[in-house]
Design goal:
The complex is a heterodimer.
Chain A (H helix, E strand, L loop, with lengths): L1 H8 L3 H4 L2 H22 L12 H4 L2 H11 L9 H11 L2 H6 L1 H13 L4 H7 L8 H15 L9 H30 L23 H13 L7 H6 L1 H10 L4 E5 L24 E2 L8 H5 L5 E5 L7 E2 L6 H19 L22 H7 L5 H5 L5 E3 L2 H4 L7 E3 L12 H5 L10 H5 L14 E4 L5 H5 L5 H5 L7 E9 L5 E9 L9 H5 L8 E4 L14 H4 L4
Parallel strand pairs in A: 2-4
Antiparallel strand pairs in A: 1-3, 5-6, 7-10, 8-9
Helix pairs in contact in A: 5-6, 5-10, 10-14, 10-16, 11-12
Chain B lengths: L19 H23 L40 E5 L10 H14 L3 H4 L5 E6 L15 H13 L4 E5 L6 H7 L2 H8 L2 E3 L6 E5 L8 E5 L8 E11 L3 E3 L20 H11 L4 E10 L12 E10 L2 H12 L9 H8 L20 E5 L2
Parallel strand pairs in B: 1-11, 2-3, 2-7, 3-4, 7-9
Antiparallel strand pairs in B: 1-10, 5-6, 7-8, 9-10
Helix pairs in contact in B: 2-4, 4-6, 7-9
Classes of the chains: A mainly alpha, B alpha/beta.
Chain lengths: ~550, ~375
Amino acid sequence: MQAIRKFFTEFDAKKTIRITNVRILSQIFFFSLFIISIWLTWTTRLGGYPVSRILEFNPLVMIATILSTHHVYRYLGWGLLIIGVTLLFGRVFCNWICPYGSLHQFVGWLFNVGSGKQRIDSNRYHNLYFFKYAILIVFLILASMGALQIGLLDPICLMYRTFATVVTPAADMGITIAGNGLTSAGLPLDLTGLKFKPGVDDRIFVGSFWVGLMIMTLVGANIVIPRFFCRVLCPLGALLGVISRFSLFRINRDVHKCTDCNLCLTRCEGAADPMGQVRLSECFSCMNCIDDCPEDALSFSMVRLDTKQVVAAPDMSRRKLLFASVTGVLAYPMIKNHGTNTDLTFSRDLIRPPGSVEEDDFLAKCIKCDQCINACPTNVLQPASFKEGGIEAVWTPVLNFNIAHCQLKCTMCSEVCPTGAIKKITVEEKLGKGAFEKDGPIRLGTAFFDRGRCLPHAMDIPCVVCEEVCPTSPKAIQTKDEEAKDVYGNVVVLNKPFMVPDLCIGCGICEAECPIKDERAVYVTAVGESRSIERRMLLQERTVKDA
Amino acid sequence: MSKKEKPIQHPEYVKAPMERRQFFGKIAAAAGIASVAGYASFAPGNWPGSLKDETGLLSKPRHKPFQIPDFRVQKPTGVFADVGVARGSRQADGTYSSEQLARMLTASIDQVGGIKHYIKNGDIVLIKPNVAFDRSPNLGATSNPEILETLIRMVLEAGAQEVRVADNPIESPPDCFKKSKIEYATLKGGGRVYLPDSNSFKMLHTPGARLIENWWFFHRPFLNVDKVIGFSPVKDHNLCHASMGMKNWYGLLGGTRNQFHQDIHNIVSDLSIMIRPTLTIVDGTNVLMINGPTGGDPSNVKKGDVIMAGTDPVALDSWAFEHVLERDKNDMPTYLTLAQEKHASSPLKGEIRYEMNYEGRVKEVQLG
């Protein structure tokens, strides 16, 4: 009672409802929204929730995909909302909304302890901070030529990728270990509901170590330079920085009140020099400086742009601009002519999810956010390494049938893809039923037998798991029954499997279930995928009814 | 002035020499730690408290196997049938009304003693349907959700305090349960779904089994369970010819179970002694005649009119093979003979079996 009375009698609105506290609430809200979106992206929980909306709000994704495809896919127009907000209030996205920014700020708050002077010095503007604009220019030029690489460093894509392939498997693993520990201690509690991905075995992601190392390094860099990623690398921040020079509201310093004490730099997140000429394109509108000013000289207000008091444009000289542009232009042929992913030579493991558009188009659309991987219920979708698609396709989704298979009636990845690299398909379209009968089913690749490793073919041992699980009707794997004498003289009936490539859809369940575990006796390779005419194998009339 | 007499600049930094008592204390502590560490690492392995591992095998992971009880219940006196079969006709539109399904289910169980005899007040009951694939129910590859719902209601009405439904599918478990409508039917009937995650498996010891004497088993739903009911469809199977009540238990295995296709008849007969269910219900209303066990085309499915319930898995599967799947009696799958050899079909202690031939132990009723 006393505590409640105390709260009301001594409640100082001015002290408690500070704008920085409102900002923290906003950051908590959007970070929770991000976690909830990840949480909901699962086959049992996804009941029509717009789980990819945080990606679709991203103006950098919108602008870069417009440059690479000349169209706006599904909900990507929502990016205009963030651009509008930036035109009103500057880069508020970076310090009020962005979950990655919040993570950096939180880590900095926790670990960056120093004297006031050290903190003031660490928050002064540094020449290095122009680098993000160079990155933005390189990425946008690449995008306009057809190679979309923004996802490598876009904070939202980076965050999604990390959560999909590193954080959620780690969290689920922890719950598994805790659950097994409790069970062996005689407390068989059911912790399944706590998992991000309940009801399945713990998931693995090939090469996810590097995704984890990347985020650990970038977050760890906060200890050297506060908000290192946001100030130096972030291409989305750079884009918003370019826009925010036109913003209506901005940090405004009353020079008559200011005593040049520099205390406003103590917690300046963006290193925007609020003590002198405010750098509009660097300011995150975090409002810390207003909080810290002992003279009340700073305000967030609508004032006319006065170039004597602010630095409006990003710190990019014409020479830097030119250098970045040339780098972008040169990078394009270097990436494309690397020759790991062309129609002449491509990896047999480059198997794309169902609904994927043709490879060139795919690379112009995929932002490597790995939301499809997050949604995949079987764990077959994996972030690509250099091996499957070369440097251009790193961390784009590929199927690894050693781990699992693509489920016949599942279109989850196509539903959550924000950019249409995997275009939205229905189950009918995937299976080639109903209105799509003339196109035939979507084929991801073709299965082949390695008869030197297949148990019935090579060793006279009965098996045919592959035929049993083959989901097409009629089955694409069929058997020839043969009676044979094995090495001990016993008569065995062997159902020797063989492929009917016309029927194979490349779902990979045969490979996933093959007991020859290291190098499967039946395996799916990319050739024959229906999304590309160039990468087909059979005469079209064999696989498409109405060719 | 000599060196010794030089005044000490910072007297507060001058350290006192160690006392004798302190010195001996430290030596004793170091000797104590050294001797404990030395004992633990050098004493022979059978001495108490030693950590010595001569062979390098002591740290090998060990999975203590557990055993599950026999869930069978002695039949009421005067009931001779081991398998009850109920035939019922469909409505004019070719479907079954839920009342008709409930009547057929009740009638089939009544032939072997009635549900009240098998389920007692306060029982925790596990029902194991076949949810192996991500298929819709009409394709016949998975258990019929409507009958499952009726069965759950019946079991709850008979006094069970909890009904669990569990399976370890081949494809993604949450998807399989969702698209086969088993999850919906379970929740609607008042049961609870158990999905297999990495928390759910334990090493099971099955005495007398040839391939799975010790094998990973989906144990979580079996915690504190009193009665177990198998509920399976009748399906064609490419390798073992037919997948019925007995093959259904395959879905409780974990580990690298795809090896067992190299000796399918032995594994299926092993399953018949791995679990001794209270009852097995086999649904012959949606029969996958060819292209099994996955099916995929409605034309592969025959509309049957039977629901079977049994306490003897061998008799039940034999009858279903002959009369539901309509195969020749002489082509009976080898696993049925093997199961008999492994005593899957033997009566409980104290039960008397009058007919040795399974056909004499099947009781059929025809409903309207």
